[in-house]
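As a warm-up, study this chain.
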Amino acid sequence: MKVHVLGCHGPYPCAGGATSGYLVEHEGKALLMDCGAGILGRLMLKWDPAALECVLLSHLHFDHASDMLVLRYYMERMGKTLDVYVPGEDESPLRQLLTAPAFNVRSYPETLHVMGLTITTLPVSHPVPCRALRLTDGQKTLVFTGDTSAPGGLAEFARDADVLLSDSAFLSTEWTETMPHMSARMCGELAAQAGVKRLCLTHLAPRHAPEAVTADARAVFLAAETVTPGQVIDL
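Now compare it with the structure written out below.
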């Protein structure tokens, strides 16, 4: 399994950057996790969007799903249909905008099997319905937290994962319980509790220096790093 980091900032991109989007490649096939601002053009450098197996949207905030609106035009031009999975209880205007012949918009099932992977989800705390995602081929496991402010049941959900891709929008020095995202230190604590092998910090605020985010997490979990656009994470 490989994860191509197409974009990693939030809630808006840095100059020349992109928000949340990750191309997951396995056994010669690929799916897309999140499709935020600036992702479609970067995806096209790596993979034909019409050849994706599906799109997994952790939630429907614009920094995670806005490029779905222009992806629709491409799919219509190519005469293709794409399965798009979203939290089932979300009836936001963006979900209504995704309703088009180009997309089969579906609620996450209890378990999804696609391209040799078993995918399960966990509802996480965020202002809108959001899912953490666990993808495994039986040997390697990737867990993506989606956006969340409270680890909740994530430690068990991420148990022994090879890679934890975690929302780390804040530094511990600025975090309060009113924040909608975790701090980098909280991500490190989650990684340690879950016994994961590697922590990859994402949803990076453009105002933060990556070194400061990494140091915040490494205070409690040494195998932590901030991701960068274009990075390929090998599992």
